[in-house]
Design brief:
alpha+beta; elongated; two-stranded antiparallel ribbon; single chain; 13 strands; about 20% strand; 7-stranded mixed sheet
């Protein structure tokens, strides 16, 4: 009987309670950790982009810039289109690569310049971002903009609270997932905004063709950008955005109309020249 009493005390006493509590703790701890360590397939389900063309971004949202100053998003909309990029500054590979490729694209783009025609605003999607990481990313990016007079005025880096970040990303349809601390899964896209802050076009991919970037910026201002508005109108007439291919393509019908009009104009000019030259021929008298 004494032995049985000791056994029951072991099973139902303090040791048993400690074991039970440990098991419960492990269950809750595992459940809490799982969302932060999702599998690749689970993470990708929450990552993507819901295009919201013509949506107006909240211009009154407040962020902190690379100088440590509190700023409003609206102060970067000064009559020019804005390229919005949503990234995070501790990103090890994808974000630096897209920035590098964007710089190369801008250098190759003819007719438009970051110096005068448009600007770029990068907002971190990480509410726990550090100012030091933001300043380092800005410094690293500016080092590649040798051809820009004052890169700090033309490409701004911002960080904000989870509320301001969520309002901005949800407005433009940008969906991302935090896998763990300082690690996010997010789409690779640049968002072209009109001078009054409306979504005009989404440009996808790690590398963007110079022609696509130029056409998107021209489209965002309805041709009111650059040195030749006439040429801008021609480009917008000849090219259209293909949602399936996610790039700009030639509008065959409009191009044929232009070609047909050019041929017709040349024929009219040729006929006019022939008629004029015929009238200038000296008259030949009878019997000569």
């Amino acid at each position: 009987m004494k032995e049985n009493k000791v056994s029951n005390e072991y099973v139902y006493g303090k040791p048993f309670c400690l074991i039970l509590l440990s098991v419960i703790f492990l269950i809750f701890a595992t459940t809490a950790i799982l969302p932060a360590h999702m599998t690749g397939d689970e993470a990708l389900k929450g990552v993507g982009l819901d295009e919201k063309l013509n949506a107006r971004v909240p211009l009154d949202l407040e962020f902190v810039d690379q100088e440590g100053k509190t700023v409003r998003l609206g102060q970067y909309f000064t009559g020019q289109p804005v390229i919005l990029s949503l990234n995070y500054y501790t990103c090890p590979m994808l974000c630096p690569l897209t920035f590098h490729n964007l710089i190369n694209t801008m250098e190759k783009m003819q007719g438009l310049s970051l110096n005068r025609d448009y600007r770029i605003v990068t907002v971190s999607i990480d509410p726990g971002e550090s100012k030091a990481a933001m300043r380092e990313k800005a410094r690293e990016t500016y080092s590649g903009l040798k051809w820009i007079n004052d890169p700090r005025q033309r490409w701004t880096f911002l960080m904000g609270t989870s509320t301001s970040i969520h309002l901005l990303t949800s407005t433009v349809g940008f969906r991302y997932v935090q896998l763990e601390k300082n690690n996010f899964a997010h789409p690779s896209v640049f968002i072209v905004l009109t001078p009054d802050g409306r979504v005009s076009r989404y440009l996808y991919g790690i590398e963007i063709a110079p022609s696509d970037l130029k056409l998107a910026l021209i489209e965002a201002t309805d041709g009111r950008i650059g040195s030749s508005r006439v040429m801008n109108r021609v480009l917008l007439y000849c090219f259209h955005y293909d949602p399936a291919g996610r790039k700009y393509a030639v509008t065959a019908v409009n191009l044929m109309k232009i070609a047909g009009g050019a041929v017709l104009a040349m024929l009219v000019i040729l006929i006019a020249v022939l008629i004029r030259s015929e009238k200038r021929k000296p008259e030949v008298g009878e019997g000569s």
